[in-house]
Amino acid sequence: MSVRVLVIDDLPLARAELVEVLGELDGIEPVGAAAASTMLWPLLERTRPDVVLVGCERSPRDALVFCRRAKRAEPAPSVVAVTATTDAAAVVPALLAGADGVVAADADPGALAAAIRRVAAGERLVPQLAPGEIAGALGLDPERLTDDGRRMLLRVCQEAG
Q: What is the pTM of this model?
């Protein structure tokens, strides 16, 4: 059975390239593509994807708003945020918005296929981050965290990695 994937990206060339790459991968079926706009919701309902790839390059705020809303759909698809980097500044906001995984925009097709299959199977795909990186992405000073705060960040890092 193929994993059905919907591509959301404001950049037309990036969107077209992702659809083309997905179409060449075994076991993955691109079911549509759209910019993050109001036309997206009927497409999401009509295609019922297993996974939505959300490009976060051009307008990350809009992409993250879409991610939050997509996770409330019935049935809710898995969401993979496609980011310029997999550093904490890109990863943490995507996770807080409900993304099930994060993959770098420069990932090779094999890594992208693996990421899609993993989140479709219910796994979370999160780059390993240090507590200090997460704290910094959240605007916290790692030196001022309480012991409980450090333990919580360490737990998040362990669960993510």
A: 0.81
